[in-house]
Design goal:
Layout (H helix, E strand, L loop, with lengths): L23 E14 L3 E8 L3 E7 L18 E7 L5 E10 L2 H4 L2 H17 L7 H15 L3 H5 L1 H15 L21 E4 L4 E4 L10 E2 L2 H12 L2 H4 L6 H23 L2 H13 L2
Parallel strand pairs: 3-5
Antiparallel strand pairs: 1-2, 1-4, 2-3, 4-5, 6-7, 6-8
Helix pairs in contact: 2-3, 2-5, 2-9, 3-5, 5-8
This protein binds zinc ion (ZN).
The site of zinc ion (ZN) has 8 residues, from strand 7.
């Protein structure tokens, strides 16, 4: 990876190249997933702001005496010190900065957060920076962690908004203005949604690829609103059960299409679907 000369900007992590000294680096990260490996080690997938998604090893993490293991719980935001490793870099220091205890104490919110972390893991390639996704995931975790009824009420909005933004980041932002077959502007009420084409089509045009879903004018308006607003504003919206279910269906088919196309992993999609059901 080519890096410009000089020190990196504040907060931007940099992984040393082969042969460079020192052989270690620091970064903050959110823990996406953790797998047990070997005797007591753990392989942890983390998302970092400037290095993207990384798989790192924590030696002895599953021993009771491990100083590192507890800091590296799934969904924690952590400060990491990593030593360059042969296959995976090795965690030599870890300190939890945010552990989202309120979120983890509530089954619905925990299921939602785990679904989002696995979705991020599934959509992002390794070692490619996706700073917008890092910010998005952190904003979602903080929103889900917020205690109190108003926060809980818009849990679904957080999920739907993050799904749309992840599609955007993966290069599959749904078209919401024009017909994807003929290119003319959509006339509200005379439109449908074709996930395999990537968005709206008008009712006159014939779609030959994949299914075609109805999309209410309200759902179209919510998606357009999401497309042009930031996290804080967008997630203030209350969708209501019917509208949420409709948007969930539409974005679900879009995500499925992208995951199949990019990864070809039907098993993973089934796994996500289970998590998604659990988050309701
Ligand atoms: Zn058309």
């Amino acid at each position: 990876m080519e890096q410009a000369a000089g020190s990196p900007p504040q907060g931007e992590a940099r992984r040393p190249g082969p042969g460079q000294r020192p052989r270690s680096y620091k970064t903050e990260a959110v823990v996406l997933r953790a797998f047990p490996v070997l005797e007591a080690d753990r392989l942890v997938t983390v998302l970092t702001p400037s290095l993207g998604k990384l798989k790192v090893t924590v030696r002895g993490a599953r021993r009771i005496t491990s100083r590192l293991g507890g800091h590296l719980d799934v969904l924690n935001r952590v400060s990491l010190t990593l030593a360059l490793g042969h296959r995976f870099d090795v965690v030599t220091g870890a300190e939890s900065a945010e552990s989202f205890a309120s979120l983890k104490g509530d089954l619905d919110r925990l299921a939602s957060a785990l679904y989002l972390s696995e979705l991020v893991d599934g959509l992002l390639p390794e070692a490619a920076p996706h700073p917008a996704v890092y910010d998005l995931l952190l904003a979602a975790l903080r929103a889900l962690d917020g205690a109190g009824a108003p926060e809980a009420a818009r849990l679904e909005t957080v999920l739907r908004y993050v799904e749309l933004r992840l599609l955007d980041d993966a290069g599959y932002m749904p078209e919401l203005q024009r017909c994807l077959v003929c290119g003319t502007e959509i006339e509200e009420g005379h439109h449908r949604y074709a996930p395999a084409l990537g968005g709206t089509v008008d009712e006159r045009c014939v779609v030959t690829a994949g299914r075609v879903l109805p999309l209410s004018v309200d759902a179209l308006k919510v998606l357009r609103h999401f497309a042009r607003t930031g996290f804080a504003e967008a997630t203030r919206l209350r969708l209501g059960e019917a509208l949420d279910a409709e948007i969930e269906g539409v974005l679900g088919f879009s995500l499925q299409h992208v995951l199949e196309r990019e990864m070809g992993t039907a098993g993973f999609i089934e796994h996500l679907r289970t998590l998604r059901r659990g988050s309701r």
